[in-house]
Write a structure and sequence with these properties.
Length: 410
């Protein structure tokens, strides 16, 4: 029994929709149904269209990227003695990560320090000789040539001391480089070298990679054509621009879930990629739980402006046929119905955004599509007239029955 009822319901619905399609393709020669004196009347709500404001929202694909990325590399040559961090964990700037054997570097530092002492002694001897010759040259005790040689010897000793001190400083720096520290705060990946291995400062052996992930960047692209259209609309006054500094950005994952933290637009590239016709934008998101990982694919949703001249029609007032062709019933000044083809864009709540076919002041049938279609298929040339729906009956008070009973008893 239930199956028969379902079949009857679907048959009736299909017949009504078929009637709508039949009307749109009928010609003026079709005669009205026998006994039909005038247009059929169908109760439906009539809505007068006007411009409304809607937000221009874009959904653009992109990938997560670390705010900062640092390669931890060896800056001196030596044997790696120890790794002092846990892979995949957060490290702080300045934290010790690796220890390279410092013994050879310590020896080089000590040798450089000894050279400084030798240079200091040489300078002291040269200065004593120069001071003595300075007194003797006045009385003719030494020749002018000997005096000049003594002065040159002092300057040479000073230069030798400066060179020795520079070599000592370089040796001390290399000794410090034996202790490898984190250049930034972030999440460190796997160690790329192992204890006992030789690392080279000449080739800058990469030892690990640190990525700063809180906050984290999201890089995505947009068509330059869409940007141009938006700017034209802003210049024409039909779209109100939103301040880029306050644009909220929402992140949607592949599974459709929404990231709980809102991001903010950081910058837009000033050039367009010649091969793709796209330009790059970047948003910054807080990432306290490290849920966002570099390389992760997602979609950014952001508002670009407010369209002040949007035509909206209720979803239930639009019939979409084969090939995506959209049709709506318009109502003239005599409340007569006419079908009209329109072009629609995306949904805005429970309404379609109309991109072509309607303008402010047009009147449409906001509901009753099936009833109107059925009436059109039967009335033919006589057409269909829209009448206001009957008012809903006011609900009776709960104590109405008791009041009537009291009146009867009186």
């Amino acid at each position: 029994m239930k199956n028969k009822l379902k079949k009857s319901f679907f048959a009736a619905t299909f017949a009504a929709l078929a009637g709508t399609l039949a009307f749109t393709g009928c010609d003026d020669k079709k005669a009205p149904v026998q006994g039909q004196k005038g247009p059929a009347e169908v109760a439906a709500t009539v809505e007068t269209l006007k411009f409304e404001e809607t937000k221009i929202v874009r959904e653009l694909p992109g990938r997560v990227d670390a705010v900062r990325l640092a390669d931890v590399s060896a800056r001196v040559t030596g044997v790696l003695l120890e790794r002092k961090f846990e892979e995949g964990k957060k490290v702080e700037k300045g934290q010790v990560l690796f220890q390279i054997d410092p013994a050879p570097l310590q020896a080089s530092r000590d040798a450089a320090a000894a050279q400084v002492e030798v240079a200091k002694a040489s300078l002291a001897g040269a200065e004593i000789t120069f001071k003595r010759y300075s007194d003797l040259v006045k009385t003719g005790g030494v020749s002018r040539q000997n005096y000049d040689d003594a002065m040159i010897a002092v300057e040479t000793a000073k230069a030798s001391l400066s060179s020795a001190e520079a070599q000592l400083k370089s040796a001390e720096i290399n000794l410090e480089y034996a202790t490898v520290t984190a250049p930034i705060t972030g999440i460190i990946g796997a160690a790329l070298v192992t204890e006992g291995g030789m690392v080279s400062g000449n080739s800058l052996t990469k030892m690990a990679v640190i990525q700063q992930m809180d906050p984290i960047n999201f890089d995505f692209t947009q068509s330059a054509t869409a940007l141009l259209e938006l700017r034209k609309a802003i210049a024409a006054g039909t779209v109100e621009k939103i301040d880029e500094a306050t644009i909220p950005v929402t992140l949607i994952f592949d599974d459709g879930s929404v990231y709980e933290h809102k991001g903010k637009l950081k910058f837009a590239e000033v050039t367009v990629d010649k091969s793709t016709g796209m330009y790059t934008l970047r948003a910054e998101f807080p990432n306290p739980d490290n849920l966002l990982l570099p390389g992760m694919f997602a979609r950014a949703v952001l508002e670009e402006g407010v369209n002040k001249q949007t035509i909206l029609v209720p979803q239930k007032a639009v019939s979409i046929g084969t090939g995506g062709k959209a049709t709506i019933f318009t109502v003239d000044e005599n409340n007569m119905v006419r079908p009209r083809s329109i072009k629609i864009g995306k949904m805005e709540g429970a309404s379609w955004i109309v991109t072509e076919g309607l303008k402010p002041g047009d009147r449409i049938a906001a509901d009753g599509m099936i009833a109107i279609g059925s009436a059109l298929s039967q009335s033919g040339k006589a057409g269909v007239k829209i009448v206001a729906p009957a008012p809903k009956e006011a609900p009776k008070p709960e104590n109405a029955a008791s009041e009537k009973s009291a009146e009867a008893q009186q």
